[in-house]
Amino acid sequence: MIGYLEGNLLNKYEDRILLLVNHVGYEVLLPSFVMDTLAGKKTGDPVSMYIYYHQTERQPKPTLIGFNLEAEKEFFQYFISVEAIGPIKAAKALTISIREIARAIETNDVGALKQLKGIGTRTAQKVIATLKGRVEKFALIRKEEGIEQSDITLVGDFTIQVLEVLVNQLGHKNADAKILIQKALERKPSISTPEDLFDEVYRGEVGG
User: Fold this and answer.
1) In this structure, which CATH number among 3.30.479.10, 1.25.40.20, 2.30.40.10, 2.40.50.140 belongs to the domain 1-141?
2) Nearest in space to 101 (alpha carbons), one of 85, 79, 120, 121
3) So what's the pLDDT on residue 76?
4) I need a labelling partner for 38 at 20 to 30 A (CA). Which of 10, 28, 32, 106 fits?
């Protein structure tokens, strides 16, 4: 099974790319929010993707669905656990960032979820009913825009654990993640566990 590809861009199409990896071209279906991040890429440019591999008896031809972050792929696997949302429908539905979708789920925002292609009111309600309380982490996936600079030094094993999640799983730059943690500790100095710290970072980001 293919879980990750790293190579050079051969071609871009409306909803997929052709990625050259060791002299083999892989066709990779991309949700539109992922395709948007490749807008500046040209033929020959390096591209790396986390891959969701889809193949069934009813659909024997493999489909590769690509993501920039492993956390985006992880969210996708949650999303397709919702009744009547299969991998292809899900890939086409993800027209806004995972960060925004996760926040809409956790705040019961049916209207925001209806922005997704092919998602109506009933399906949006199913998504919330199935996933609310399970996708808070993904609401903290990095923003694509500018990153603040920081020389903050974190103290304590629990802060380092949260830093590693923000950087390694959710795609934040190290300095940006330190700022999120520092602000959470300033709001609630009594925090002493990684779980409580992560919850406070989340609350600060979503304005809860």
Assistant:
1) 2.40.50.140
2) 79
3) 97
4) 106
Task: Kindly indicate the confidence band of residue 112, based on its pLDDT and cuts at 50, 70 and 90.
Answer: very high
With CA atoms as reference, report the closest residue to 99 among 160, 172, 181, 195: 172
Domain coordinates of the chain in residue numbers?
1-141, 157-206
Q: Which two three-digit tokens encode residue 23? A: 């002299």
Is residue 163 over pLDDT 50? Answer: yes
